[in-house]
């Protein structure tokens, strides 16, 4: 499905990819993801889209977003919008679809193959529009969950469907690596606590 002469652009719906990988029980190693798709052709751009909490200096997403930004990804963010529903419950909204669509349409002139990491059926028209420009479109999501994480009409529209479960061995983070990092963090915190006790 890939030709090593192709210019490739990745468009990653961050929240969608995160929930898909989580439903399959693994974490994405974004360094390995870049390496995997760089091996398939000329990787021109890799975009990552996510909404973030505006007022927090530190959010759980901040370290990931910063790392991606410094390691080959074009990160596109916008603030989450907070609102209250009719029952007074606090809700947040952070849809990045428009940003992704605009960038994909602009990049379509410069690439041969667009890879969309999302199962959101709203992107079917985007896929169709990019194809009309003579570009191939692959969609990455999964059919292995109940219900599937990909909309049927998006899967049918794409030139190629790549099930994320088939990429797990190539782009998944090693679980032992996570355990080792957690242990390093615990050791560091223990040393810092010990150092503070000395004062």
UniProtKB/TrEMBL annotation:
Pfam families to which the protein is assigned, alphabetical: NYN
UniProt domain NYN: residue ranges: 7-164
Annotated organism of origin: Amorphus orientalis
GO molecular function, one term: RNA nuclease activity
Region spans: Disordered: 173-199
Organism domain of life: Bacteria
CDD domains the UniProt entry points to: PIN_LabA
Gene3D superfamilies in UniProt: 5'-nuclease
Annotated protein name in UniProt: Uncharacterized LabA/DUF88 family protein
PANTHER family linked: SLR0755 PROTEIN (PTHR35458)
């Amino acid at each position: 499905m890939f030709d090593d002469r192709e210019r490739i652009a990745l468009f990653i719906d961050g929240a969608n990819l995160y929930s898909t990988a989580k439903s399959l029980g693994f974490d994405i190693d974004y360094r390995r993801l870049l390496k995997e798709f760089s091996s398939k052709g000329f990787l021109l751009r890799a975009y990552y889209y996510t909404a973030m909490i505006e007022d927090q200096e530190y959010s759980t997403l901040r370290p990931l977003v910063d790392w991606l930004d410094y390691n080959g990804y074009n990160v596109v963010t916008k603030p989450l919008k907070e609102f209250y529903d009719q029952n007074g419950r606090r809700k947040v909204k952070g849809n990045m679809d428009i940003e992704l669509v605009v960038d994909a349409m602009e990049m379509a002139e410069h690439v041969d193959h667009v890879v969309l990491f999302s199962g959101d059926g709203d992107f079917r028209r985007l896929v169709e529009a990019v194809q009309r420009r003579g570009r191939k479109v692959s969609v990455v999501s999964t059919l292995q969950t109940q219900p599937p994480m990909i909309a049927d009409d998006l899967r049918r529209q794409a030139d190629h469907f790549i099930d994320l479960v088939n990429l797990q061995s190539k782009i998944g983070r090693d679980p032992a690596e996570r355990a080792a990092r957690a242990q390093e963090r615990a050791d560091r915190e223990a040393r810092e606590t010990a150092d503070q006790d000395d004062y």
